[in-house]
Design brief:
- The chain is mainly α.
- It folds into 2 domains: 8-67, Arc Repressor Mutant, subunit A (Orthogonal Bundle), CATH 1.10.10; 74-193, Tetracycline Repressor, domain 2, CATH 1.10.357.
- It has helices spanning 3-6, 10-28, 35-42, 46-50, 56-70, 81-106, 108-114, 132-143, 153-170, 176-193.
- Helix 2 (10-28) packs across helix 6.
- The radius of gyration is 20 Å and the shape is elongated.
Amino acid sequence: MDLKQTRRRGSELETAILDAAWDQLIEKGYRDFTFEAVAARAGTSRPVLYRRWADRGELLRQAIRHGNNRTPIEVPDTGTLRDDVITLISRFNAARADYAAVLGVQLAEYFRETGTSLNDLRDLMRTGRGSAMQQILDRAQARGDVDLSKLTPRAIEMPVALAHHELVMTMAPVSYATITEIVDDLWLPMLQARGALL
């Protein structure tokens, strides 16, 4: 067998390393998230990793971004604000519930070591187009359904934040009944009280 034909390079090698890094993090946690372990899992050497990432914190952040991008979630456009938000949370729940809960546990040591939290990693999950909730509300405003000037960023992200809290606290997927309760009994009445619903 010609080794030159099977040697991975460039983006193929980087993808293999990041796949290995993500799997190592999810399965073993931060304590065992080392360059040695990731290199062994990826079938490469530590120097290959050191040429790309300065330290394991940098590799970890890139692995989280990569893991998130492996299962992209399409932002729904059902035509109604309520259904868009329920569908978004349901899609997140189906695609990411398992590892979202695991990440909170597996990264506990990282958060203690760096003085950060899961919230500090949130931007790594963004697509570059703003949050999914912001995209949904921008479309709702364009339809004339909502006045965004009445809403703070925290109010916009409230349904996703509450669903994520439920997920992390129970370590289980969020039920559809809980998702609809968050949207119908908490979030939409809050928008109505702020005068944001048109």
